[in-house]
Amino acid sequence: MNKQELSATANAMVADNKGLLAADESTGTMGKRLDSIGVENVEDNRRDYREMMFRSEGIGNYISGVILYDETLRQNAADGTPLAKLLNDTGVIPGIKVDMGAKDLPGRPAEKITEGLDGLPGRVEEYYNLGARFAKWRAVIDIADGIPSRYAIHTNAHALARYAKICQEGGLCPIVEPEILMDGAHDINRCQEVTEEVLDVVYNELYLQEVYLEGSILKPNMVISGKKCATQAPADEVAAKTVETLKRCVPSAVPGIMFLSGGQSEEDATVHLDLMNAMGDLPWGLSFSYGRALQQSALQAWKGEAANNAAAQAAFIERAKANSQACAGTYSKAA
Ligand code: 13P
Fold first, then answer.
1. What is the pLDDT of residues 81-95, one digit of tens each?
2. Is residue 295 pLDDT above 80, yes or no?
3. How far is CA 237 from CA 55, 188, 233, 242, 287, in A?
4. The domain 3-328: what is its CATH number?
5. Contact 19 CB / ligand 1 (< 6 Å)
6. Hey, which of 260, 287, 319 would you mutate to test ligand 1's pocket, going by the most ligand atoms within 8 Å of its Cβ?
7. From the CB of 112, is ligand 1 less than 6 Å away?
8. Mind telling me the catalytic residues?
9. Beta bridge partners of 104
10. Are the CB atoms for 180 and 202 separated by under 8 Å?
11. Ligand 1 mean position, distance from CA 176 (Å)
12. Whole-angstrom Cα distance, residue 194 to residue 227?
């Protein structure tokens, strides 16, 4: 394991108030996004959309890396330049989603287990040679009556640690993503309780499997009310409870914590991150790895038309810049 390379990558991912663009939607998920703007889900359209974002003027000022899907890491831009090279040339690190999706947990179909460990060392080697320097694996934990079970938490934590160790051996910095969904009717306190338990088990597994924490990144959910909860906790409570939970569970050896947006609006995701960083005195870099919260406005502005590229790029950069300000805790003051 090349510890120096891994920690250099992890530190670069959260340096200079930058964050990640999660553009690793699977072909199916990308289909839903394109469908929302009436665009056909074919390879060229997926490429054109992502190439448009990657070519945004100034992307490297706010975005340190992009999480790609297998198809995109192998794709060339319309002019023949590999998309990974295009990113590298602007100082943006290419990364790769390596999990094979969340499947029904055997014997407990209401819960999920993420698959993709078989053959992973070989894929990691290939991805490294294609230019990727970090990886992502997402575990999905749902909150409802009687769940999550201990079984779901432990199997997912075990798989996350297996994945992280395999990636580190192959030179990819692992993003460890245990996502607690915000879809339920639970309140913020229940989210905090489950987030704390899951992170505690995840860091225990990472320790048991000898994962090098200095060369890893955590991608958690924020501690937030379930979408269907009648009482939505205010932004300052989200920020305070998220930081409280992370301080309890995440060792300071971890260089960076980069949140998922999880279905929050673009503005909420930015404001929450801003409030946390404005609190100051944090032992890790606190940044973003947003998918929907960086892309919603850009996708709506694009509509599948090259003529709209400039407007879509402006919308994307507006969110990227806002989130970069949130990494410094200066977004609300700048607004
Ligand atoms: P969202 O920010 O849309 O939740 O996506 C981030 C991500 O990569 C989830 O795995």
1. 999 999 999 999 999
2. yes
3. 37, 9, 6, 8, 18
4. 3.20.20.70
5. no
6. 260
7. no
8. 177, 219
9. 112
10. no
11. 13
12. 16
